[in-house]
Write a structure and sequence with these properties.
This protein is α/β, with parallel strands linked by helices. The chain folds into 2 domains: 174 residues, Aspartate Aminotransferase, domain 1 (Alpha-Beta Complex); 252 residues, 3-Layer(aba) Sandwich (Aspartate Aminotransferase, domain 2), CATH 3.40.640. Helix content is 40%, strand content 12%. Strands 2-8-7-6-5 form a 5-stranded mixed β-sheet, sandwiched between helices. A 3-stranded antiparallel β-sheet has the order 9-12-11. A two-stranded parallel sheet has the order 1-10. Helix 7 links the parallel strand 5 and strand 6. The radius of gyration is 22 Å and the shape is globular. The chain binds ligand F0G. Ligand F0G binds next to helix 4 and helix 5.
Amino acid sequence: MARRSWAEPFKIKMVEPLSMTTRAQREAAIAAAGFNTFLLRSRDVYIDLLTDSGTAAMSDRQWAGMMMGDEAYAGSENYYHLEDVVHRVYGYKHLIPTHQGRGAEHILSRMCIKPGDFVPGNMYFTTTKAHQELAGGRFVDVIHDRAHDSTLEHPFKGDIDLGKLRALIDKVGATKIPYLCVQCNVNMAGGQPISLANLREVRALCQKHGIRIFLDATRAVENAYFIRQREAGYAGTSIAQILLEMCSLSDGCTCSAKKDSLVNIGGFLCVNDDDLAEQARGMVVVYEGLHTYGGLAGRDMEAMAIGIEESVQEDHIRARIGQVEYLGQKLIDAGVPIVRPIGGHGIFIDAARFLPHIPREQFPAQALACALYVESGVRAMERGAVSAGRNPDTGENIFPSLELVRLTLPRRVYTQAHMDVTAESVIELFKNAPKIVGLKFTFEPRQLRFFQARFAPVVGSRVLVSEAAAEPVGAKQCCCGGGGCGGRARV
Ligand code: F0G
């Protein structure tokens, strides 16, 4: 039996009761939510693994910091504390606070991207790409191909393919590339890190062509942890030092503080360039708030400053990623197909392999997230074709190579027992996978469609059919209702 090598490096001071629901209640709730887990009410959820964003439990020190909020419109003490901490931990020269990560993405995109530009990055992230496109740019994926293979074990699946980046520079010219966006611990690839060796090579290539690099530092601390674990020469280096080295290879960053930084709201933009900083401060007052609060209360900035310091503590990060590994290993042991190696912020179930009977056009990951909720009350998130949206030129659905369901672990919130229950629920569902039914859109928003889209099962009214219900339908029809599944799955 595998040994649990660590326990949570905290004890519990306050508890929040969880709601327990019946299966019938959950079936009604998911139907009312249009078969979209984003539209469920949280009171109907038992274990909420929708996201690790803004869901962390703050420490007693952070809560104490909230009481020290200096709610001055201008020049709040908390801003100066945050500026000092960001400077020490991330190393950049200028800090522009924003209400969350996408506020920083908006400002960076609007400042730097001109219509017709190309913005390369190591796999897209939904809001990042949306802001690049709204500014008139085009996102170009330059992540190494191995990131698209969920079964491949590689320590740095977030690495950039230098050949792809070079080819883009040759094709469109460096002047059409305002910056390269390097995402740390690539979210849509399954929380996979980029290596320092790769980042150094990428930096050299970009410098040669005068292309700036901005990190999406949202999960940079988790990336630093993997560098320490996996990259030669870093076993004895602290997480804090590795993080500084990563940031030193870029010109600035956007960051959602709702992840690594252990707060429920907040974000920031950092730049080293003085002129760019001045421009960003000009924009932040229009879209977020004065440059010394950027849409945040003083107390939020204080909690963020303390959270950033806690985020790079060794005990914290080891337990944080250790918990993800604990859940992932249980699923691997049971044969559940998940993205390998286990990532930093969650477990990504390969829905295409979990549900081979559901064609991509019927959104297997969306269906799986809904079925898991019905089965157990655990809320997960689709990260596949629904999230990828449509090709802006052709209007066709984009079918990314990864069709995933993300079980995202909030930081310091759930215990190992919750992980056990989650693993048991997923494993039970895996045994019953053929009973899961594909989905079709009934409402499709134009921007970031996954947040508010609504769906219906392709046959019947339920996403997870019971054996009793399965018989009469299955006798006549396949899962997609039209033979698109090859008739493999009877529902
Ligand atoms: N970049 C990455 C890599 C992210 O994962 C997110 C948010 C953002 C930027 C935007 O930050 O939400 O503070 O505006 N990710 C959340 C998630 C929504 O669930 O993965 P935000």
